[in-house]
Amino acid sequence: MLIPIFIYIVVPIVCLCLHLFLCQWMQKQAIDPPFWALLLVMISYGGWLIILLTGLFWQWSGMASLGLFYLLFVAPFLMLGTAVSIARQQQLSVYHRWVFRASAGYIPIVGVVVLITLLGR
């Protein structure tokens, strides 16, 4: 029972805490954090971590399939919108630049992962 608790409870809580820590860290440095854009990046990449851990250490389920559907068919559009909306804010800080790069690189990264998965079969 520890494996699903770790995958489905601990990993999301750690990602959320990391998001809040980064936003507080930016505010301490007098930087207006890109709260929602960073949250979307954390959700999307954290979702891939959960999918990976599920595939490696647990059994596949309908919820995992729904999560994968989101990551493949919904998240790319949201990440593209995030990249477009934050593109002009890249120069504000290294954090804004990181959020832009993570959101702009999502579609190519997912494409490579899907291609490797399909070629590996």
From TrEMBL:
Keywords, in A-Z order: Membrane, Transmembrane, Transmembrane helix
Top-rank taxon: Bacteria
Transmembrane segments: 6-23, 35-58, 64-86, 98-119
Keyword Transmembrane helix: yes
Protein name: Uncharacterized protein
